[in-house]
Amino acid sequence: MHIETVIHKNLEARLIDEICIIKDDSWQHGMANQKKWLDENVAAEDIHLLIRNNKNNLIGYANFAHRNAVINQGKYQVFGLGNVCVAAEFKGKGIGAELMSSINNEINSKGYIVILHCKEDLESFYSKFGWEIIDRSLIVTEYNLDNIWTMIQGLNTRIDSLTIQGIAF
Ligand SMILES: CC(C)(COP(=O)(O)OP(=O)(O)OC[C@H]1O[C@@H](n2cnc3c(N)ncnc32)[C@H](O)[C@@H]1OP(=O)(O)O)[C@@H](O)C(=O)NCCC(=O)NCCS
Question: Which of 38, 42, 47, 103 is most deeply packed, by most CB within 10 A?
């Protein structure tokens, strides 16, 4: 198993197809909509994380989206972690755990601050890998966070307020 990171602007058509296929296993919108979503929501410098098995199949995926944030009145460049998923036939076999430890290695080795949004039932999954909940009452976003949890990794400061700028990730 190995991890590959690719900057969005360098993504070849073959990789776009692979990403759309793995995402469609978890969020079934069809290939055309997956491609449209990538086009409209991923910026040139955003980062794709790809986990491949020894046969070189894409079995895990996530992306890091650049965002500006204001934390306790200080300006920060952060990443939004999105689209965390494992290929259908590989779910429940420890690949999600491998993906999260690769993501944590990226965060720790590069000193990133990374935020994610998830539904309540996934909070326990991310907590296993050191993600911490941010109280919703402290967060301002340009999109709706009803029933959505927000978690953070890589910041060692208590959060009193958080504003995330830009679209959801
Ligand atoms: C969530 C997901 C990435 C987990 O990947 P996975 O390969 O199935 O997970 P693993 O087999 O590595 O499990 C690792 C641990 O997380 C737990 N876990 C897995 N899925 C979980 C879930 N949905 N909720 C809570 N815990 C979960 C496992 O029980 C395991 O715990 P253990 O180590 O104590 O036994 C995968 O199920 C998936 O692609 N889901 C659909 C997409 C999705 O909802 N992504 C999240 C977007 S915020």
Answer: 103
pTM (2 d.p.): 0.97
Tell me, in angstroms, the distance from the centre of ligand 1 to residue 119's CA.
12
Could you tell me if residue 169 is inside a domain? no
Residue 6: Cβ-neighbour burial (10 angstroms; 0-12, 13-18, 19+): middle
Query: Cα of 117 to ligand 1 centre, how many Å?
Result: 15
Domain of residue 156, residue span:
2-164
Residue 85 CB–ligand 1 contact under 6 Å: yes
- Residue with the smallest CA separation from ligand 1 atom 17 is 125
- Please report, in angstroms and rounded to a whole number, the separation of the first and last CA atoms in the chain: 26
pLDDT in tens, 66-110: 999 999 999 999 999 999 999 999 999 999 999 999 999 999 999
CATH code at position 49: 3.40.630.30
Atom of ligand 1 nearest to the CA of 90: 7
Asked if the structure places residue 143 within a domain, the reply is yes
Q: Is residue 66 part of a domain?
A: yes
CB 111 within 8 A of CB 80: no
